[in-house]
Amino acid sequence: MSVSEHFKIGERDNYTGYKTFEAGSFQFRRDEYFAHIDWPKGKHIIAIDAFLRALMRDVAWGFFYGTVNFDGVFGTTNRYGTVEMFAGAHNEVYKNARVDTLETFHSEELLKIFQAMVSDWTNDGYDPFAAPAGTTVAWGRKNGDNEGAVGRVRVTARRMVGLAGDAPERTDENGYPVNRMFEDVPQDAPVVEPEPGFEGELAAFNLFAYLSRSDVTWNPSVCSVLHESLFCPTSEEFILPIEHGNDRVEWFVQLSDEIIWDVKDKATGRARARVTMRPGDVAAMPADIRHQGYAPKRAMLLVWENASHEIPELIQKGEAPVVPVEF
Ligand code: PHB
Ligand code: FE
């Protein structure tokens, strides 16, 4: 496996004001409406708002689990230490036409150029983590920046939100007001009465209240950890900005409202299923699919991940199943 070491940040365009970026043989350019991605055998174009929403997730999640498809053509696959960037490599039409490409990078190096890109291409007032109704627009020539928004770090509790020294609960005072769509969510908190000697070691929090105060959408945060078992609840509005290609099974528990999922084959992109999830519904997303969710109203979703580094390899070797249960 050869690793691409070429990276370049170009001069600002005289007209649009945006910088260009190169990683390996990929070239990136933005204009008033679009991101343009070129590689030796092809060209691709993505609406800039969709591109920035996807890029923001890829950066904030450190390339996430498995594959982050920005759309049906372009994306990244996390190899945990290295990362593949591809165009058409998981799209059977591009592959058959032999215009696909895939290059490997050191994760921290590609992350740096992606961070510089999301920072330069995001204008004052535009928040790629927000739902479209919660931000200004991405369009136009370079106009300031929004470092506060693009520099957000994902909540990753060490053990559980609310424990002493761990990720804090959200309140009005620490800058997390209740979202306009969750004003009916009760804000009471559980009462914890530890036995003498256990003070400071027990905690409980109101997860619905916590999620009602999320300032971002489609951003699972690690709220509790038990060995490799991660509870990653998230609040969702509009469209999951990526098609996530799983490298392991993940579970969804629908906590409120409704999310519609398009499920496609991971390798080819062929349509496989449509899943509508309503409160209380539980689904396991297999390890051989990609999926994208649609939330007509802001919804609460629990994503349950197994963070074990062994699973992707076991699945690739056929030693672990792609579904958690067979009937
Ligand atoms: C997923 O790919 O499973 C995923 C990603 C982000 C979300 C929810 C689900 O907000
Ligand atoms: Fe997923």
Structure commentary:
- This protein has 327 residues and is of the alpha+beta class.
- The protein is built from six helices and 17 strands.
- Strands 6, 7, 8, 9, 10, 11, 12, 13, 14, 15, 16 and 17 form a twelve-stranded antiparallel sheet that branches. It has a five-stranded antiparallel sheet with strand order 1-2-3-4-5.
- Helix 1 packs across helix 3.
- The protein is globular.
- The mean pLDDT is 97.
- Bound molecules: P-hydroxybenzoic acid (PHB) and fe (iii) ion.
Task: Give structural attributes.
binds P-hydroxybenzoic acid; 17 strands; twelve-stranded antiparallel sheet; 6 helices; 327 residues; binds fe (iii) ion; five-stranded antiparallel sheet; alpha+beta
Number of helices: 6
Portion of residues in helices?
A: 10-25%
Kindly provide the radius of gyration, computed on alpha-carbon positions and rounded to a whole number of angstroms: 20 Å
Main sheet overview: 12 strands, antiparallel
Can you summarize this structure?
By secondary structure, this protein is α+β, with helices and mostly antiparallel strands. It is built from six helices and 17 strands.
Write the layout of secondary structure elements.
Blueprint: E1 7-12, E2 19-23, E3 26-30, E4 34-39, E5 42-47, H1 48-60, E6 67-69, E7 74-78, E8 82-87, H2 92-96, E9 101-106, H3 107-121, H4 147-150, H5 207-212, E10 224-226, E11 229-239, E12 243-245, E13 250-254, E14 259-265, E15 271-277, E16 282-285, E17 289-306, H6 311-316
Antiparallel strand pairs: 1-2, 2-3, 3-4, 4-5, 6-7, 6-12, 7-8, 8-9, 10-11, 11-17, 12-17, 13-16, 13-17, 14-15, 14-17
Helix pairs in contact: 1-3
The chain binds P-hydroxybenzoic acid and fe (iii) ion.
